[in-house]
Amino acid sequence: MAKKFKWLIVFIGVFIVASSFVTAEKWYLFEDKDCSILFPKKVETTSQQVASELGPLTLFITMYDASQAKNDDNLVYGLFTSVYPDSVIHSNNKIMLPGFYRGAIDGAVKNVKGTLLSESTITINDYEGREFRVNYSEGLAVIKMRCFLVKNVMYMLQTICLTEKENNVSSQKFFDSFKLKM
Question: Which helix (H) or strand (E) holds 3?
């Protein structure tokens, strides 16, 4: 009996070691000239013109709709990039940064008719940014965003997930993979 138990323990140990070599689904590296980030699937970038107080801006949208994907805790992954006139909006202008981020956060919350759940100051490569969470669709989902103004370029990273799946590994992997090429 003790011998059978010993072999069972050895078998379980071998199984655990062997299963640790099974690779997770491959994520795809999206790169442009200034940044890179991992997405669960291959993505393409589109653009659209957006009206702003500064005149029309081009918004570059790189998004993966995971709502139909099996085994994904998020509904959407997104990277949004826009270039502002250098003479008006720039990360070196530390006086305007709080108001700039306040406008970006309030605008994002208003656009989805949500409520702000949390907000914090973050940095990447010594550039100040904001991370915030928005209650969306009356508590059905949570939008998590990170915004960075780097020189005159705004990077906005976003995941959307059902509220009960908010703190998931895939979302963290997505946000942590964002790198600036500077």
Answer: helix 2-19
Identify whether the C-beta of residue 57 lies closer than 8 Å to the C-beta of residue 50.
yes
Q: Is the Cα torsion angle 80, 34, 89, 52 positive or negative in sign?
A: negative
Rounded Cα–Cα distance for residues 137 and 163 (Å): 10
Report the DSSP beta bridge partners of residue 159: 77, 144
Given a contact cutoff of 8 angstroms between Cβ atoms, the answer to whether 154 and 82 are in contact is: yes
What local confidence, expressed as pLDDT, does residue 178 receive?
98
pTM, 2 dp: 0.84
Sequence-distant (6+) residues with CB within 8 A of 33 are 181
- The tens digit of pLDDT for each residue in 116-169 reads 999 999 999 999 999 999 999 999 999 999 999 999 999 999 999 999 999 999
Q: Which superfamily does CATH assign the domain made up of 23-180 to?
A: Mog1/PsbP, alpha/beta/alpha sandwich (3.40.1000.10)
SS3 2: helix
Other Cβ atoms less than 10 A from the Cβ of 168: the count is 16
